[in-house]
UniProtKB/TrEMBL annotation:
Residue intervals of the Competence protein CoiA nuclease-like domain: 59-148
Database matches in InterPro entries: CoiA-like_N, CoiA_nuc
Protein name: Contains predicted nuclease domain (CoiA)
Stretches assigned to the Competence protein CoiA-like N-terminal domain: 18-54
Pfam families documented for this protein: CoiA_N, CoiA_nuc
Length: 360
């Protein structure tokens, strides 16, 4: 821990503490000792590691350095509480930023792996007190290739936040997209800059700032192709990969049979199904888009369906932790409307034409 209470009942940072002073844990009030040296970051530790559930003992150097760096970053402009004791939920976030607008922001600097259940418990506890939660990830996350599911767990306003102590590097990733059979794509920005300041100020709900933080859902092909020949090559590549999945038995038999019963084949999907780049899906884009095409087929030409009814069928295909699925759904409908497939009117969808499967 970075903070302890001295004999005058005042909070004291470990890097400013005096070895001759007696210190106590702010949570359990039991004695703690000051530890630091040439190889260690100054910190406090319980003399007896028992009975205090608010602190995590054995913090790594990276975690201590990162926590201090984040404190210094925010403390320049905002009131920041380090390791606040939240006795109501027996939790202690790394930082609590007092925001002039909006709710206060709890910041957790995460260096080690954390399970989904534990992460949800931490989030739910902090949110139960009316706090927003921002996870800043350490070097172990920064230097590995994160899956889409893991990325969704830590997103805040559509961004991932990182701090690498050895490089003193603040970094963000945003505008995520996922093309089938390709790696997860994103843009990156060195430094938190105005983006994190907007978060701290509680202005991230502002429309202008919201666009800056979240970016626009990517449903067009700007990252996929730059010419007609590129488009042809891309579609050929996608169909080849899809055929290989079928040969390898990696496509659900129920889906293949469902298509067969309706006179369709998986390798003859409409081109539109192979052009998706939406991030946040627990299934490939082609699968998600195929389901949508089949649902519209069941609705039938010149028939209406309520948008919410259609969306309710599609939400199951997103990662549970992904928060922007409504934006992706809206953007996908807009893409179909722009192509003349559907008409959007008063929260209802009219099927104007059906996307055709490719013939042999």
């Amino acid at each position: 821990m970075l903070l302890a209470i001295n004999s005058s009942n005042q909070y004291c940072f470990a890097n400013l503490a005096n070895r001759s002073e007696n210190y106590r844990c702010p949570a359990c009030k039991k004695p703690v000792v000051l530890r630091h040296g040439q190889q260690n970051v100054a910190h406090f530790a319980h003399q007896v590691q028992a009975g205090c559930h608010s602190f995590t003992e054995g913090e790594t150097i990276d975690h201590l350095l990162g926590k201090m760096a984040l404190y210094r970053y925010f403390a320049k402009d905002y009131q920041v509480v380090v390791e606040p004791v939240l006795s109501q939920i027996s939790q202690r976030p790394d930082l609590l930023v007092k925001r002039p607008r909006g709710t206060d922001l709890a910041i957790e600097y995460q260096c080690s792996s954390i399970g989904r259940k534990r992460l949800q418990e931490r989030n739910q506890g902090l949110e139960s007190l009316g706090l927003e939660v921002l996870w800043v990830l350490g070097p172990a996350y920064y230097h590995r290739r994160l899956s889409g599911e893991l990325t969704c767990r830590f997103l805040y306003c559509g961004r991932l936040f990182f701090y690498v102590p050895k490089q003193k590097r603040f970094d963000t990733r945003f505008n995520f997209s996922k093309t089938d059979f390709h790696k997860l794509q994103y843009e990156s920005q060195t430094g938190f800059g105005a983006v994190l300041s907007s978060v701290a100020n509680g202005t991230d709900n502002d429309e202008r700032v919201g666009r800056q933080l979240t970016g626009q859902p990517i449903v067009n092909q700007t990252r996929l192709v730059s010419s007609t020949s590129d488009l042809v090559q891309h579609l050929l590549y996608q169909r080849t990969k899809l055929t290989l999945l079928m040969v390898q038995g990696r496509v659900k038999v129920d889906l293949i049979n469902y298509l067969y019963e309706r006179g369709h084949r998986l390798d003859q999907l409409p081109d539109w199904c192979l052009l998706g780049q939406a991030f946040g899906l627990a299934v490939p884009n082609w699968h998600f888009r195929l389901v949508l095409v089949l649902l519209l087929e069941r609705v039938g030409l010149n028939h209406w369906i309520f948008e919410e009814r259609l969306s309710a069928r599609l939400r199951q295909y997103f990662y549970p932790s992904f928060q922007d699925h409504e934006k992706i759904l809206k953007a996908t409908y807009a893409d179909l409307a722009a192509s003349g497939v559907i008409c959007l009117q008063d929260n209802k969808i009219l099927v104007i034409k059906l996307l055709q499967f490719v013939a042999d």
